[in-house]
Write a structure and sequence with these properties.
The protein is of the alpha/beta class. It has 2 domains: about 1-210 and about 300-305, Spore Coat Polysaccharide Biosynthesis Protein SpsA, Chain A, CATH 3.90.550.10; about 225-295. It has helices spanning about 15-30, 50-60, 75-85, 105-115, 130-145, 165-170, 180-185, 210-225, 225-255, 265-295; strands spanning about 1-10, 35-45, 65-70, 90-95, 120-125, 155-165, 190-195, 305. The chain has an 8-stranded mixed beta sheet, with helices on both faces. Helix 5 packs parallel to helix 8 (about 210-225) and helix 9 (about 225-255) packs antiparallel against helix 10 (about 265-295). The chain starts with a strand and ends with a strand. About 25% of the residues are buried. The mean pLDDT is about 85. The structure holds uridine-5'-diphosphate and magnesium ion. Magnesium ion (MG) binds near residues 201 and 206.
Amino acid sequence: MKTLSLVIPCYNEEKTITPFLAAVQAIEVAMSEEVVFEYWFINDGSKDETLSILRDLAQTTSNIHYLSFSRNFGKEAALLAGLEEARGDLVAVMDVDLQDPPDLLPEMYAKIQEGYDVVGTRRADRKGEPALRSLFAKGFYRIINRISDTEMVDGARDFRLMTRQVVDSILELGEVNRFSKGIFSWVGYQVTYISYDNRERIAGETSWNFWQLWRYSLDGFINFSEVPLNLSMWAGALSFVASILGILFVVIRKLTVGGSVTGWASLVSLILFIGGLQLLSLGIIGKYIAKIFLETKKRPVYIIKEKG
Ligand code: UDP
Ligand code: MG
């Protein structure tokens, strides 16, 4: 029989683990004819009772395992650690707050049987989400899909079921900056999506605030697109051409009608404009250099303190 590994990142989730497990174990029973479940909870440096709950579960239930990080390394790191541990022929990645409905698992499994390599999920709507967050999310997807070769599906969750082959491919990507949405899509394979209505968190709170999401989307741009670099190059090229035209204009005017020396205001505006453009370009390049710097340090993506 095939094994299905569930990779579940947890950060301060003491309230959600028990209801989550109850919901998933009901599905586990329903699917027990087809697959054996294996649970990998990743405690991403929680400050509440998450770890002790996981310890208890691992002791009492033989197919529940956990990893515990030495501090909070972020969801991307937790996902990577889980994917590395999972031994299943199939691997699913799930949030613990039941925003990823476990009752979709049988349907997802059926799609894999049909021959798909990856079955992702996407929210049909963004009900219950703050309006500003939806607005920015939509903007992000519109821009990134225009400028990046890697397609990112609007509303796609990290909740997905993958075959062993896909997981191995994902693990082959050695980058330290792991932008999962991009990585999952970059590896390719036959992918299909299941839509469902947005669900609210059952308990606890989202660990993302507005600025974290903002940084996360900038990360997406920088990790999966060179367009910001090209933009600054084109801005530079344009202002260079404009300046040549300007010089020609000034010289020709001097030689024909004779020039005047007025124009302090326009001169200052021009200097500010060029200066601003240069700083902006430097900033963009700096962002990429910072990423290169982090990558070359080859630091581990996470540190495991305890395993069970
Ligand atoms: N999570 C994590 N590390 C973090 C933040 C979140 O492992 O630093 C986990 C969290 O426990 C949950 C999942 O990632 O299982 C999604 O987090 P959350 O619900 O806060 O994000 P949202 O659904 O609001 O995007
Ligand atoms: Mg959530």
